[in-house]
Design brief:
mainly alpha; 6 strands
């Protein structure tokens, strides 16, 4: 590995380790949404009323290892711990195994986050050797849950690039190009929060009151005025950074007194992603299909049709201009 990559990786490791001492990684759990009565609170991270404080608490999600009690503060994985058999074991032993697997998920999320920060690919062999170790028989479950956690919390997709060597790269999800990190790789990716906000706006009729945004974010332990482990200063991120990046529009509600504010999609959000992609994201983490939400699905389909027509018009206009410029002039 080149020397500068080693230095960059070392900085990322130190930063993640320091941050994880303050607060554990958490993966919001998105519950099943009722078809007839879609509540934005239900599609937010319900089920995790606050961020767990134990640094070894693994990410929890709607489809993964059975829930286990949080480990005690200061506990960490040990290479000496034995892996109990899953057959004919007592309930207590099953809880211990589930707890151990949850810690491995948390460790794998941290390891994969480092790979994202350093822009390095990751292989299954590397994950088994560095993180999973004696739990290799449980790797498929651990890996699946870690990928879900990265997607929901950080907005990071894990894509396989070599099915033979099982090599993966980590990229931003939904075709978004912004992750909220500074130029020197300070902090953590914030794409997951952006996706949640875009989803709230869409599901609130394309215009979400500010109080609704904070109401939803409070369900994942993110509050205005409180510094967050992953998202830094949420109010600054949402009302300034994302506005400057043109992902959201933050404006005063007309004629409101006292002044109230609302959020809309910004031009960059419309350019980089779509209502259908956002709906598919929320449907995926709910383990269902976008068509399960008829009104939102129909709106997303209309949006796709309008985008297609706009592309056709653009292509037709370009072709017409090219034809006119190459046509011989009359004498």
């Amino acid at each position: 590995m080149p020397r500068h990559h080693k230095h960059q990786r070392s900085k990322a490791e130190q930063r993640l380790q320091a941050q994880s001492k303050k607060q554990g990684l958490v993966c919001p759990k998105l519950p099943v949404i009722e078809e007839e009565d879609i509540s934005i609170e239900e599609v937010s991270a319900a089920g995790t009323s606050s961020m767990p404080q134990s640094p070894q608490r693994a990410c929890s999600s709607s489809t993964a290892i059975a829930a286990a009690p949080p480990s005690k503060p200061g506990e960490g994985p040990s290479s000496q711990e034995e892996v109990p058999s899953t057959s004919c074991v007592s309930p207590a032993a099953k809880v211990l195994l589930s707890d151990a697997l949850d810690r491995k998920v948390s460790n794998l999320v941290q390891f994969m986050s480092i790979k994202y920060l350093t822009k390095e690919p990751i292989t299954e062999a590397e994950m088994l050797k560095v993180v999973i170790k004696e739990y290799k028989d449980h790797f498929p479950v651990i890996f699946k849950k870690a990928c879900e956690c990265l997607e929901v919390v950080f907005g990071i997709d894990v894509k396989e690039v070599d099915p033979v060597d099982h090599s993966y790269v980590l990229v931003k999800t939904l075709d978004l190009t912004y992750d909220g990190m500074l130029s020197d790789d300070q902090g953590m990716p914030k794409t997951g929060l952006l996706i949640l906000i875009l989803g709230v706006i869409f599901m609130e009729g394309n215009c979400a009151p500010e109080e609704k945004i904070w109401e939803v974010l409070s369900l994942i332990g993110v509050y205005s005025g409180s510094k967050d482990f992953i998202y830094g200063e949420p109010r600054k991120l949402i009302t300034r950074d994302l506005v400057q990046e043109e992902y959201v529009v933050y404006r005063q509600v007309p004629n409101s007194d006292p002044a109230r504010y609302e959020f809309l999609w910004g031009p960059r959000a419309y350019a980089e992603t779509s209502k259908m992609k956002v709906l598919k994201f929320f449907a995926k983490v709910n383990g269902t299909d976008p068509s399960s939400f008829p009104s939102l699905y129909q709106e997303a389909l209309r949006d796709e049709e309008q985008r297609a027509q706009a592309r056709i018009a653009t292509v037709a206009g370009s072709s017409s201009s090219a034809t006119s410029s190459t046509a011989p002039s009359e004498v």
